[in-house]
Design goal:
single chain, Rossmann fold, Nucleoside Triphosphate Pyrophosphohydrolase, 4 domains, ten-stranded mixed sheet, extended
């Protein structure tokens, strides 16, 4: 009687016409002797539980009871109703999950409740019996008839109770009478006990677990305290076992004082959660305590355990010349996720963010390196406002990159922080100059409400500095590891109360309750997006800015977009490189292979076309033509890439090994721009024409290869587009993006080439071709440079 499946089995049993084991003469005699009503009884209510077809209910009715008969099998209740004698009312109720109190009679309760050959089937016997007991009147009796285990074979054990189980059942009653009736036992239980529960220990257990607290304490230079354990020959954190009845905070404070002579208050301890792993055949439970507020100087007070204490820079712990205690390493990785590589795993159960403030401290070297980075960014024109310079000077970038040495943390480069199973980066802290450019394009002001898509913490902290204490920042991150890492770093640096961190899919924007009444003043996306979800546009305030690394034709551009009514119009655009979006915004850029040629096609925003016959066209060789258009090594090509990707029908990217000897002369950068025309193909290539050894500069000419019966036509098409770029766009025009909702009629679109996305239609135009390009555009990454080296 413990599952729905069992209920259906009993229903099928009775529906097939089968019955239940009838009452034996011995049972009838026992019931008659012990449950017959006195002659002067006016009316007595009885409840028959698991009544089957109602034989016992009818027997009780004949003895003078008015009977409620219940069963959970519909067919049983139907048959019991058909056979019911006067005084019997049948109900279909599952006593394992139904509302038993609905059966309480109008008076004070049932005089008698019976359960025959059913208790052994119940999963929660103690609870069910207690619920039945609550339905009895003051002098009522619970009668349980059960097959006895000693009188049945082993294969019937599941329907029986043994003496131990019977004794356990009777302990909850003031009066228990036991009557043997053939192969069954009849229990007559009266006066349910209501004593409060008592508590008891087991027999002395075999030790199975070790419980302790590891204390991560840092000084005014941001260094962490480690002690040398000479007997174990390991470095370890201050730590110790929890005393009986002791709070984890108290353990942390006590151990820190006893071992290292540092004094802290329990109120200054921030608990970060529990680690669980195995050690020496025991389960090891380690609570992680974080402390930045303390007094005293480290002193080895228990030299037999720790003979000296030293302060270590967190990053330097990665290269300790001696071993680090495993549990301490695990605790350090909780405080600074990603700090230590290849640490033996432990299950971390985090605690909810506490309200204990941490004091952020750092070495003077970090301050100096940060100031130098800002000077370099300012000299290059990236931090061109006092607000940007102050933000980059204030926020400690190294605190969000614990796995990096200080000098590397302040290099003007992106830093990967999470990887997938193939080793591909899935999260990073972006290049500072790119962050400055995107923050500038967001046009942030004090008091603004900002949504950031993508975690990490550093960029969100820069935003928090720019919008000030009267503004707000909501950061949505989809990866649980990156989310947890971001949460920790925001807490460590003091930005946790200024950045609202949300674990979720940023494709859907912010949760509804976090959206300001008039929308966000800025939305900054820090992962490459292949679309512009309508959630972003709808959550953006009118006239304000969305900044996003937008992928068009396979090329990613950092676009600043201003909302105007239901559309977005670009204000600035430049090449960039970001990790791809996950979740609903993920895209598959796996190339479609061309036979066994070793080449593949990526369609990007172009509808895929059949590649049949292209393998034969490549094998047959092709033609080459030269455009006469040359570029200098290192010259920006981002406008050419965007022009080809959006203006050429059948545009695609051709992939393959550039060092492989084959018919296609692929560049060493990421693939070649190409078009498919029927069973023909053409792709762009470059060849060096001049090289100045003295200056180390080269000049390259664009050429086109064509393959297949229409290879010449396809090659001419690309060549013409390159010449148009050289003649009309190169250095003269800036692309403008106009983003309209998906489904917008063609007649409502401005002039330009249209790129179709799932949520929007993007129109790329080239206005003001005769005017000089915006000087802010043209800064280039390796993706947009012409130099093959």
């Amino acid at each position: 009687m413990s599952t729905k499946h069992t209920a259906l089995d009993w229903h099928a049993h009775y529906e097939a016409g089968r019955d239940f084991r009838p009452l034996t003469d011995t049972e009838k005699a026992a019931l008659t002797e012990h449950l017959t009503l006195p002659e002067d009884t006016q009316e007595a209510q009885a409840l028959e539980v698991a009544c089957g077809t109602g034989e016992l209910a009818r027997f009780l009715a004949a003895a003078g009871y008015r009977v409620d008969a219940v069963d959970w099998a519909r067919s049983a209740v139907e048959r019991a109703t058909e056979l019911a004698s006067e005084g019997v009312v049948c109900h279909q109720i599952d006593i394992t999950s139904g509302d038993l109190s609905s059966l309480r009679p109008a008076g004070s309760g049932y005089r008698l409740i019976t359960m025959r050959r059913a208790l052994a089937h119940l999963p929660d016997r103690t609870r069910t019996v207690a619920e039945l007991a609550a339905l009895l009147d003051e002098d009522g009796t619970l009668c349980v008839i059960t097959p006895h285990a000693d009188r049945h074979s082993e294969d019937l054990r599941g329907i029986c109770l043994d003496d131990a189980e019977i004794d356990l059942l009777t302990e909850g009653w003031q009066h228990a009478e036991r009557v043997e009736a053939g192969d069954s036992t009849v229990l007559l239980l009266r006066g349910p006990k209501s004593d409060p529960v008592a508590y008891s220990e087991k027999w002395t257990p075999k030790p199975a677990a070790l419980a302790g607290v590891a204390v991560v304490v840092t000084n005014e230079h941001g260094q962490v305290l480690l002690g040398w354990n000479p007997s174990r020959a390991v470095w370890e954190l201050p730590a110790g076992k929890v005393e009986p009845g002791e709070a984890f905070e108290a353990t942390a404070v006590r151990e820190l004082g006893e071992e290292a002579a540092l004094h802290a208050r329990p109120e200054s301890v921030l608990l970060l959660g529990t680690l669980c792993d195995a050690a020496h055949g025991f389960t090891r439970i380690t609570e992680i305590a974080r402390i930045t507020d303390y007094t005293g100087e480290p002193t080895a007070r228990e030299p037999e355990l720790i003979n000296r204490w030293e302060w270590h820079t967190p990053f330097a712990v990665r290269s300790l010349p001696q071993p680090l205690f495993t549990a301490s390493a695990q605790a350090l990785n909780v405080v600074w996720p990603g700090l230590l590589p290849d640490v033996p795993p432990a299950r971390h159960t985090p605690r909810p963010s506490g309200d204990v403030p941490l004091t952020f401290t750092e070495p003077a070297t970090a301050v100096r390196l940060r100031q130098q980075l800002v000077r370099d960014l300012t000299e290059a024109g990236w931090t061109d406002t006092p607000e940007l310079r102050r933000a980059f000077t204030t926020v400690p970038r190294h605190a969000f990159l614990p796995e990096q040495p200080l000098t590397q943390a302040y290099v003007n480069e992106a830093a990967a922080t999470a990887f997938d199973s193939t080793g591909r980066s899935t999260s990073s802290v972006s290049q500072p100059e790119m962050q400055a450019a995107m923050l500038r394009r967001a046009h942030l002001r004090p008091g603004d409400n900002v949504l950031e898509i993508g975690g990490g913490g550093y960029n969100a902290s820069l935003i928090a500095e720019l919008v000030g204490p009267s503004g707000s920042v909501v950061c949505v991150e989809i990866d649980p590891y990156v989310h947890a890492r971001t949460e920790r770093f925001l807490a460590e640096t003091g930005y946790a109360d200024r950045v609202r961190l949300v674990l979720g899919d940023g494709t859907h924007g912010a949760p509804g309750h976090l959206i300001p009444e008039n929308g966000f003043d800025a939305i900054i996306v820090t992962v490459a997006s292949n679309d512009l979800p309508w959630h972003w546009t709808s959550q953006l305030a009118e006239g304000r800015h969305l900044v996003v690394p937008l992928r068009i034709g396979g090329f990613t551009r950092a676009a600043g977009l201003r909302k105007k009514d239901s559309m977005l119009v670009s204000t600035e655009i430049s090449p960039c490189g970001f990790v791809p979006m996950q979740g609903a915004g993920r895209w598959d850029d796996t190339p479609t292979v061309i036979g066994d040629t070793g080449y593949g096609i990526r369609w990007e925003d172009t509808p895929p076309a059949p590649l049949d016959g292209l393998d034969r066209a490549l094998a047959a060789g092709g033609l080459e033509l030269w455009t006469g258009v040359t570029v200098r090594g290192g010259e920006s090509l981002e406008d050419l890439q965007l022009w080809l990707a959006t203006s050429l029908g059948g545009f695609c990217r051709m992939d393959g090994d550039p060092d492989r000897q084959g018919p296609v002369r692929l560049p060493k950068r990421s693939g070649a721009e190409a078009i498919i025309l029927g069973r023909s193909l053409a792709c762009l290539m470059t060849e060096r024409r001049e090289h100045d050894e003295a200056n180390g500069t080269s000049t390259w000419e664009f050429g086109v290869q064509g393959f297949g019966p229409d290879g010449k036509t396809a090659a001419d098409t690309i060549a013409a587009a390159v010449r148009t770029w050289d003649r009309e766009l190169r250095g003269r025009a800036t692309p403008r993006l106009t983003v309209m909702p998906a489904g917008t009629a063609d007649s409502a679109l401005p002039a330009g080439d249209v790129v179709e996305k799932s949520d929007c239609r993007i129109v790329i135009g080239w206005p003001d071709r005769d005017e000089a390009a915006d000087p802010a555009v043209g800064r280039s990454t390796a993706q947009g440079r012409s130099d093959e080296q």
